[in-house]
Amino acid sequence: MRKPVILLVFINLLRIGLGIFFVVTSLLKIPQLDETADFLTRSRILPVECSLPLACIGVGMELLVGICFVLRRAYRAAALWGCVMTAVFLFLYVQGWVRGLELSCNCIGVKHVIIHYPLDSAMRALLLGAMIILAWDSRQNETKLWKFRRFDFSDM
């Protein structure tokens, strides 16, 4: 069963838009990796020594997911990894809110102190919802990597 054209247009716009968003934000974060590491340190979940390596991995994966979305390569893996990334960041925001931590975010290349935790958490939840939609779409459009042939040797 084919999807309606409007749904195809919506999903493609969502995929390309999120891809461009991830590429741009990761490129803006690369020169300021220390600020992303500071965010992870202030979250008080992992040891301080883990913050910079995790910031590098996070920004690198953000860039990779964005490129995969834009080029529609490894779409399913990128969508699933995007869900994991956004869920982790949503968790970091919510636990900071619940614990009363004073966090600042280096989102979109601009460092700002998080004042409205409900609004920031809701924005991350919407982003996670968009990633779930793309993960659902990637499951629907899964292509077979292996084509099996059945050989019939009954005539021999």
Protein described:
This protein has helices at about 5-30, 35-40, 50-70, 75-100, 115-140, and strands at about 105, 110-115. It has 5 helices and 2 strands. The termini are far apart. With about 160 residues, it is mostly helical. The longest helix has 25 residues, at about 5-30.
List keywords for this structure.
single chain; 156 residues; mainly alpha; two-stranded antiparallel sheet; 67% helix; 5% strand
Briefly summarize what is shown:
This protein has helices spanning 5-29, 33-42, 51-71, 75-99, 117-140; strands at 104-107, 110-113.
| Inertia-based shape | elongated
Distance between the termini: 40 Å
Percent strand equals 5-15%
* Tally of DSSP helical segments: 5
Q: What is the number of strand segments? A: 2
Layout of helices and strands:
Layout: H1 5-29, H2 33-42, H3 51-71, H4 75-99, E1 104-107, E2 110-113, H5 117-140
Antiparallel strand pairs: 1-2
Helix pairs in contact: 1-3, 2-3, 3-4, 4-5
